[in-house]
């Protein structure tokens, strides 16, 4: 069992720590509070902390990194001067594999195209004592759930869907690479004490409703901003009716709420999952602490007294949803799509249906979806949309292959892709006849931002459960409701699909082949390289001519002056996610090369002055050009610049490239109506100013040719506003207050030029 000594040490101290916390706070505890307070970096600092206000330093148990973000995280770690990571850590190669022809061919292409990056990640992992999961081993969050997650623990991961592990009762939080470096070097990891939203579940899901529909429903209630700086803590009898992987699906998409993480209590389902995945020893230890791996009884009896907000959900009343297009909180019960679709101009024909991603690629997911495929074959139904399946891990793939599940999909024409993120992260070589035609796809993924899956702005992506995705592939229509509607088969007969059925666990147990346990088999096949302390003297080679990898140079420290007369780089209109700021897809190949990837800066953002993307006015020559080109021109003239944006700027992925790129191109400030949590932290870590309008209407005062100044930096202090002055082209000006959330340590990051600079000089 991986990390077993660390897990033993954790549980050996857990009960006594809980007693200390309870004695200090003198009140019942939520489950989230138990995990947070038992992971304080300095136990002597234990005291009541005000949620949403106070910052605290934490000591997570481990770090997980996926290949696209691990590159920048490890490049920063290499500059930190450590010989070995301070906590257990793992790297997972799942993002760089493009979905095209099928698993075997695509994996071969990926290993060839990405050899330089994979070699770098493998050698850096070996040198610094990090577990390495090679291409084909599986998607980071499924692999973590199967091998590393444990109830009561705390993990950070360089991917926004790290909260997936909350399905097994772990506080798993998505962060940028600089945060990971803090933990990997043994430094305190800082987080503002989150609010806690209690979600009371009762009843059981019925019919076609799946765990995915729980979180799709909540997204419709709270929106993509509703969970910002909050932990979603689920409780109540209804939690016991959900499998661990079903709970992981719900926690995974808590990231779409902006939530810090999501948590389910430890129960018999979690116990069985640990045992089924070969971790009986962890299950035994967790069982001994079961009473403290959930909220205290008084919290569940009187939730309104202990949670900042309480949401009550009757699982029996939840119906299947399709969320979208373009945002995961556009929630539509399938029964309403027939009316809503045409009214909103949605293309109603489903062209592609995709199953998989870190959100829905477990054995239970594939099993239930395959039951729909088996029905289709028996009822003589043909799929009317292309069907693509991506298993979550090699263990899931191998088990599903043995049990005939993948053949069930193939029998109705599905293509099985590699155990990787693929289309979910934009790594999809879609074959289509016309990119200009409005078209609809349905996925079991977690995000559906415009252009995300296939790069096509005319693709309307909708999110549903895996079983609903198969049903809509058979119908070829967005408005098909399998609970009430018939389909016409090849013989012209009307037939109906029955409710999906599936196994939570494989009846014959999980397998990775016939070479022993899963870990040993993966080792033998070269898909897993365990951590070691024997290779600290090896070199991590990066070619100076590489176009994929580039050693990092420290950013310049603050010069001690206010920021004067900066040109406006772009005033962003509407939603601006990290996909808009730093696109994925083909740009993933440059995730280890800051200079090259900076060419995609804000290319998806909409310019408020012309309604176009990647076309802004360069104030030096008056020409309209790409955002990165204008930023480069300002940088060449030794000028800083500023980005102005609307609400929830930086929603989406944890990719810190969205902060490092503007920093590299000499952008000094992002001034927004509000920020997504991870992105705001990433900006702070890289030494940038993340400011918000005190009055959101001041956004409207910003003009295209403005020169913008920020004053008050010499007295920069927590809670003290700064002053922004807009000097307009006609000589007039506007001044207003800008707020910030910097504490004293974060101000030191700004002054040093970055958090890493501050660490190195301390």
Structure characterization notes:
The strands form 8 sheets. The protein has a 7-stranded mixed β-barrel with strand order 22-25-26-27-30-29-28. A 6-stranded mixed sheet has the order 6-5-2-3-4-21, with helices on both faces. The chain has a 5-stranded parallel sheet with strand order 16-15-14-17-18, with helices on one face. The protein has 25 helices and 30 strands. It is of the alpha/beta class and about 750 residues long. Among the domains are: about 320-495, Aconitase, domain 3; about 565-760, Aconitase, domain 4 (Alpha-Beta Barrel), CATH 3.20.19.10. α3 (about 65-80) crosses α5 and α24 packs across α25 (about 755-760). About 30% of the residues lie in helices and about 15% in strands.
Topology of this protein?
Elements: H1 4-25, H2 31-38, E1 55-58, E2 62-66, H3 67-78, E3 89-92, H4 103-113, H5 115-128, E4 131-133, H6 140-147, E5 154-157, E6 171-174, H7 177-184, E7 189-192, E8 195-202, H8 211-222, E9 230-235, H9 244-252, E10 261-263, H10 268-276, H11 280-288, H12 297-301, E11 309-314, E12 321-323, E13 331-333, H13 337-343, E14 350-355, H14 363-378, E15 386-389, H15 394-402, H16 405-411, E16 415-416, E17 439-443, E18 459-463, H17 466-475, E19 487-488, E20 494-495, H18 518-524, E21 528-529, E22 563-571, H19 578-581, H20 594-597, E23 616-617, E24 624-625, H21 627-636, E25 641-645, H22 657-664, E26 667-672, H23 677-685, E27 689-693, E28 707-711, E29 722-727, E30 733-739, H24 744-752, H25 755-761
Helix pairs in contact: 3-5, 3-7, 8-9, 10-11, 14-16, 14-17, 24-25
């Amino acid at each position: 069992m991986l990390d077993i000594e660390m897990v033993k040490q954790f549980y050996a101290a857990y009960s006594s720590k809980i007693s200390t916390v309870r004695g200090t706070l003198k009140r019942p505890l939520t489950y989230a509070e138990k995990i947070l307070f038992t992971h304080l970096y300095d136990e002597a600092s234990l005291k009541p902390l005000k949620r949403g206000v106070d910052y605290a330093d934490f000591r997570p148990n481990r770090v997980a990194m996926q290949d696209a973000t691990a590159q920048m995280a490890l490049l920063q770690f290499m500059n930190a001067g450590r010989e070995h990571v301070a906590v257990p850590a793992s790297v997972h190669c799942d993002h760089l594999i493009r979905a095209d022809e099928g698993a075997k061919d695509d994996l071969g292409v990926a290993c060839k195209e990405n050899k330089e990056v994979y070699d770098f990640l493998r050698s850096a992992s070996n040198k610094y004592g990090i577990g390495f999961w090679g291409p084909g081993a599986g998607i980071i969050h499924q692999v973590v759930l199967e091998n590393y997650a444990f109830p009561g623990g705390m993990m950070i991961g360089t991917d926004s869907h790290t909260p997936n592990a909350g399905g097994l009762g772990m506080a798993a939080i998505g962060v940028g690479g600089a945060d990971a470096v803090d933990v990997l070097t043994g430094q305190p990891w800082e987080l503002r004490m989150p609010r806690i939203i209690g979600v009371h579940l009762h009843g059981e899901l019925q019919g076609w409703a799946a765990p995915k529909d729980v979180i799709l429903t909540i997204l419709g209630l709270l929106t993509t901003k509703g969970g910002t700086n909050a932990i979603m803590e689920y409780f109540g009898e209804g939690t016991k009716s959900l499998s661990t992987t079903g709970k992981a699906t719900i926690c995974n998409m808590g990231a779409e709420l902006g939530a810090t993480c999501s948590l389910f209590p430890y129960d018999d389902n979690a116990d069985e999952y640990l045992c089924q995945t070969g971790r009986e020893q962890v299950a035994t230890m967790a069982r001994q602490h079961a009473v403290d791996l959930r909220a205290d009884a008084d919290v569940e009896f009187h939730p309104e007294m202990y949670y900042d907000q309480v949401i009550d959900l009757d699982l029996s009343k939840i119906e299947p949803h399709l969320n979208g297009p373009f945002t995961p909180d556009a929630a539509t019960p399938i029964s309403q799509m027939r009316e809503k679709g045409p009214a909103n101009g949605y293309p109603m024909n489903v062209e592609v249906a995709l199953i998989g991603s870190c959100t829905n690629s477990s054995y239970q997911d594939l099993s239930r979806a395959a039951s729909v495929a088996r029905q289709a074959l028996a009822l003589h139904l043909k799929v009317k949309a292309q069907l693509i399946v991506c298993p979550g891990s090699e263990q899931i793939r191998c088990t599903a292959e043995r049990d005939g599940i993948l053949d069930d999909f193939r029998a109705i024409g599905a293509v099985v892709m590699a155990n990787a993120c693929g289309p979910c992260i934009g790594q999809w070589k879609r074959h289509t006849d016309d990119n200009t035609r409005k078209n609809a796809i349905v996925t079991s993924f977690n995000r559906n931002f415009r252009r995300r899956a296939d790069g096509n702005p005319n693709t309307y992506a909708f999110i549903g459960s895996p079983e609903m995705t198969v049903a809509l592939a058979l119908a070829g229509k967005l408005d098909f409701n399998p609970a009430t509607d018939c389909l016409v088969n090849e013989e012209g007969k009307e037939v109906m699909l029955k409710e999906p059925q599936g196994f939570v666990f494989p009846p014959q147990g999980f397998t990775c082949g016939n070479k022993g346990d899963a870990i040993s088999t993966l080792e033998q096949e070269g898909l897993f390289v365990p951590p070691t302390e024997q290779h600290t003297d090896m070199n991590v080679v990066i070619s100076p001519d590489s176009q994929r990898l580039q050693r990092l140079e420290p950013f310049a420290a603050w010069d001690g002056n206010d920021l004067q007369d900066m040109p406006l780089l772009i005033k962003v209109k509407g939603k601006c996610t990290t996909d808009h700021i730093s696109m994925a897809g083909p740009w993933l190949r440059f995730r280890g090369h800051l200079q090259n990837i900076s060419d995609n800066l804000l290319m998806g953002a909409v310019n408020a002055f012309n309604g176009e993307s990647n076309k802004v006015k360069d104030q030096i020559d008056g020409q309209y050009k790409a955002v990165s080109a204008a930023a480069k021109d300002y940088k060449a003239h030794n000028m800083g610049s500023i980005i102005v944006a609307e609400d929830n700027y930086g929603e989406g992925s944890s990719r810190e490239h969205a902060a490092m790129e503007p920093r590299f191109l000499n952008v000094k400030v992002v001034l927004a109506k509000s920020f997504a949590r991870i992105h705001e932290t990433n900006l702070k870590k890289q030494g940038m100013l993340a400011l918000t309008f005190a009055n959101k209407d001041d956004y409207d005062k910003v003009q295209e040719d403005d020169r913008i100044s920020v004053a008050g930096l010499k007295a920069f202090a927590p809670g003290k506003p700064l002053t922004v002055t807009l000097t307009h082209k006609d000589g007039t000006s506007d001044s207003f207050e800008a707020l910030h959330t910097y504490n004293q340590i974060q101000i030191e990051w700004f002054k040093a030029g970055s958090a890493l600079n501050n660490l190195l000089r301390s």
